[in-house]
Amino acid sequence: MRYQGNRFENGGQNVDSREAILARIREAHSQREPEYGDLPRLYRQEGDLDVQDRIALLSERLADYGCGVHRCGRDGIAAAIGAVLGQRGRTDMVASGDLPREWLPDTVRTGADLSYRELDRVGGVITRCSLAIAQTGTIVLEHDAHTPRALTLIPDYHLCVLFAEQVVELVPEAMRRMAGFAERPITTISGPSATSDIEMTRVAGVHGPRTLDVLIVK
Question: Is CB count within 10 Å lower at the N or C end of the chain?
């Protein structure tokens, strides 16, 4: 396989660079997969906390990261979303296209088709998540046409709806669940976006929303 410009030539056929690189990674992975499967795994792979304790641990971790944590029952999602937005004073909100309309205030619109510039001007975004890890306080977002990655990275505020059964205790448990949607883009979030420069000055909102609320539905 020979590289020319931004394409590879393989047996006289041009192959897109990205696809060629991914193909080589898959080939290497398949060759080493038996060895990888035989590696000893002495770390914990199954949690022992019940649902209530998993939620408590996740809530503690999220609060430590500066995230707002809210709870409601399944019949109170719409009221809870309205209350959180009211507390934050958030208006001009957009939502991912997979959220039930009955959850949302009438003023909230779908944001999946907005440009980057338009997303930068909205008051915030509401999405659901695919998974949460109590041990690390991590929210896992799965991206598709309803929830493009930009929708969850550009707006300054993010309200994420999480169901109790989506909370696992340990990272290995999460990795097994994530295998079910591993072909899609995935974003992991542990609290609001923040970074520190070389002088250790902490700056919020550089790589994503500076304010994150999580609504846990039981």
Answer: N
